[in-house]
Design brief:
- 51% of the residues lie in helices and 15% in strands.
- By secondary structure, it is an alpha+beta fold.
- The protein has a domain of 94 residues: PDZ domain (Pdz3 Domain, Roll).
- The strands form 5 sheets. A 3-stranded antiparallel β-sheet has the order 6-7-8, with no helix packed on it.
- Strand 4 and strand 5 form a beta hairpin.
- Helix 6 packs across helix 10, helix 7 crosses helix 12 and helix 9 runs antiparallel to helix 10.
- The chain is elongated, with a radius of gyration of 28 Å.
- The two termini are 42 Å apart.
Length: 413
């Protein structure tokens, strides 16, 4: 570490990160590596939440590190040492006096976590998860307003969405091909009827097999009239046209984009709605996981590759996460934003569970101390809570190690 020139250490670290990203692109996994680097930044943001909540309250913070294990790089600024450690599986900031077991210099006692008022301790405890929630809300807003939602939350596709696919019905051209439809066309009206949703327009087409339609399309700002005749779906026999409706319903052979964009105000509302839905889903998944049936299913997943493939309610470890992120990167930016937002929400919710060593465990203790402090100040003796801490740690390790085994087996397969 170059203590006289800390900027040089920062530059070296930046070069290493850039080299890793470049190698990722050279290997064809550049987008995935970038997402992983961003998630590493989310971990730093989590710790920064604790850090800034403590610092702004005058609480002493002696260390702020990304990663665990051997120290790779660090620099001291004032009373705090900042740095990076070898195992990038998390991070931490060391706040002085987190419990009564920690010995603190008498001069530092007024600046300890345990000496802070209840509201400040709760603010410090929830600040990490709050950082994840703010990141998730920003990503969701970017998705709705910028890239659009690819069916994750908004399922009503506008009828004016552009055509992204024109199918082929075997050797014979599809009605869309024969009529002259092009990728990028936007259907404005059919037989003079305007539709707000694609499913309404699709039903109109399905209801008119064999009938010539008068279709108005917007082609780069110019209105064009096309005259396709939908063919009955049951007369189209081609393995290259999956997903067609069954029976004697009309089909043209077009596919429209499922991405739905929102305006500014709608993006704010949709972000809040998607956030609430994901939080509720995360709590539901955790509740199912710790139920008797959930634990039984989890043990079955640990012992059975087939059950693990079909199962969904389980933790995903750093071993399985790159595969999920790679699939999202291959599916497009809207899916990347959704997946990374969902990961941040899940991490935030998980950290608020009332278990040690999670943030939620400290929240529970702080609330208990607050209830006991109405008449005189009260602090929990952490030595008496050690068995509870071990139980919480055992629960976390049980699910984490089981999920790690499942992820290792999936990677090997």
């Amino acid at each position: 570490m170059s203590r006289d020139r800390p900027w040089l250490d920062v530059a070296r670290l930046a070069v290493v990160v850039a080299a890793v990203v470049a190698l990722g692109f050279a290997a064809g996994y550049g987008e995935t590596v970038l997402i992983i680097v961003f998630l590493a930044g989310c971990i730093v943001a989590h710790e920064f939440g604790h850090f800034i909540a403590a610092k702004t309250g005058g609480i002493k913070v002696t260390e702020f590190f990304f990663g665990f294990g051997p120290r790779l790089w660090s620099v001291r600024r004032g009373e705090t040492e900042y740095g990076v450690k070898a195992i990038p599986l998390g991070g931490y900031c060391r706040i002085v006096g987190m419990n009564n077991l920690e010995e603190v210099e008498p001069a530092d006692e007024p600046r300890t976590y345990r000496s802070a008022p209840l509201w400040r301790r709760l603010l410090i405890d929830v600040a990490g998860s709050s950082a994840h929630f703010l990141i998730a809300l920003a990503l969701l807003f970017a998705m709705f307003f910028w890239t659009g939602d690819d069916g994750h939350y908004l399922t009503s596709v506008p009828a004016s969405n552009p055509i992204v696919q024109i199918l082929e019905f075997g050797r014979q051209g599809s009605p869309a091909e024969e009529a002259g439809f092009r990728v990028g066309d936007r259907i404005v009206a059919i037989d003079g009827h305007r539709f707000s949703r694609w499913d309404q327009m699709a039903r109109f087409i399905e209801d008119h097999p064999g009938r010539r339609l008068d279709v108005t399309v917007d082609r780069g700002g110019r209105l064009v009239q096309l005259y396709p005749t939908p063919v009955p779906a049951d007369t189209v026999a081609s393995p290259s046209t999956p997903g067609l409706p069954k029976g004697r319903v009309g089909v043209l052979g077009i596919g429209v984009s499922g991405v739905v964009h929102s305006g500014l105000a709608a993006s704010v509302a949709d972000s809040a709605g998607a956030f609430a839905q994901t939080v509720t889903g995360t709590f539901s998944a955790i509740g199912h996981l710790v139920s008797f049936h959930g634990i039984s299913s989890y043990l079955h997943m640990v012992t059975s590759q087939k059950a693990a493939t079909a199962g969904s309610d389980r933790l995903v470890t750093v071993i399985g996460l790159p595969s999920i992120l790679h699939q999202a990167a291959q599916s497009g930016l809207p899916n990347v934003l959704w997946v990374v937002a969902a990961i941040n929400i899940s991490i935030g919710v998980f950290n608020l569970l009332p278990l040690f060593p999670l943030d939620g465990g400290r929240v529970a203790v702080a609330l208990y101390e607050g209830l006991r402090s109405f008449r005189r100040p009260y602090r929990v003796d952490m030595a008496k809570l050690m068995p509870v801490m071990y139980i919480g740690l055992a629960i976390i390790l049980f699910f984490a190690l089981g999920s790690m085994l499942i992820d290792l087996r999936n990677v090997a397969a």
